[in-house]
Amino acid sequence: MKLLAILAAAMLLIAPAAIAGNVGFTELSIPDGANPPLSIGVWYPTDAPASPQPLEAFTQTVAPEGPVAGRRLPLVVMSHGTGGWYGEHDDTALALAHAGFVVAAVSHTGDTYSDQSQAAAVWRRPQQVHELIDYMLAAWPDHARIDPDRIGMFGFSSGGFTTLVVIGGVPDLGKVAPHCVAHPDYFDCGVVKRAGPALSATIAQLPASLWAHDPRVKTAVVVAPALGFAFGPEGLKDVRVPIQLWRDEDDHVLPNPDYAEAVRIALPQPPEYHLVANADHDDFLAPCTDRLRQVAPDICVSRPGFDRTAFHADFDAKVVRFFQQNLR
What we know:
Structural class: alpha/beta
Mean pLDDT: 92
Number of strands: 10
């Protein structure tokens, strides 16, 4: 009987806090060293009443600034794609927060829909994620409710590249120039070309020490990663955390096999791999609203027969399940 009592007490200590009924949300600006502040969105469990609230071209049912519910909550940080922003995966963030996660997503300065002046400077992104984690663990008003030993990361496109770097990957951007000679019409090559010859020369000479890794991140969801060809087995040899890797079948932005498939082959341990039939690159973005279709119609077009809303119900459930399994 004494042994049973000890085991019961131990289970109470390791059991997660009860999941709250609603999702709270806050938008903040956080320091980024000598650079301009970073804009972030934070979703989290709350028991406060929720109601439909505008978020750019979306509407989300949240409790703005509601009190955080729970303790020892796992944290997932998010990194968006080129020309995106922190809210482009709001459906996934909401699903995670409903499941008991704190979700913090960053808008990468100089690589958002309103400012792409630094879109090619991908080495800046991992450091910004590092600053985000620092803030959430030490300066966020409810940082004491986060379990610092349970941190995951979600990244899409350039955010997928960022995620691979954060968890230990070291890209060789000297591979970009020959890649773009072979594929001058590819999206990433257009980004490099628009940045100008000076930045192209800089990219080719970046030292490995420049890439910011963060061992606090224990697991990752990598979605349609940009610049996958730049890693190879040598560049990913130190990536040891569990990974869920997603690839769309008909990607017109990052065509197979130079991106997600190149990462899958190069990883030292097989990821949980998902190939989405008939999907295109932007189908990984949150389902479009009527307002978004008006302001950004290109990202709202899916291939005939593909139901983005139905796909995201399954996608979000699999992302939540993966983080639950790997951030216990």
